[in-house]
Design a protein that fits this description.
It is a single chain. It is globular and about 50 Å long. It is mostly helical. The model has no long low-confidence stretch (mean pLDDT 91). Helices cover 71% and strands 0% of the residues.
């Protein structure tokens, strides 16, 4: 009971925390806005990508890995073109933040 009211409140708190440079909060909002979620939060790719990029810039490795994957594969739903240069740059940032799968991707792309 009351669950529907808690989701917007929680999202508002994550937004506020992200504005205060909380990398984890930025990543949560970015993930929720770029992926299907059970909370009824509407996808907004452009906004979600900005949150993920900010989280990455703040050193959140999972966010860097997520952004790298979006550019690595491209995404028709969100009209993002495949961009290997951006994918590589974000994968390096993710690897620098201990995301081992991104380190593997960097080694493959580097060849």
């Amino acid at each position: 009971k009351g669950g529907d009211q808690r989701v917007p409140s929680a999202l508002a708190l994550f937004n506020k925390s992200c504005l205060q440079n909380d990398k984890e909060a930025c990543n949560v909002v970015g993930e929720l806005k770029t992926k299907q979620n059970p909370f009824g939060i509407e996808k907004n790719f452009a906004e979600g990508l900005r949150y993920l990029q900010k989280a990455c810039d703040l050193g959140q490795g999972r966010a860097c890995h997520h952004v790298s994957g979006l550019y690595l594969m491209g995404d028709e739903e969100f009209k993002i073109a495949k961009d290997m240069s951006k994918a590589f740059d974000y994968a390096v940032k993710a690897c620098d933040n201990y995301m081992m799968p991104s380190c593997v991707n960097v080694s493959i792309m580097y060849e």
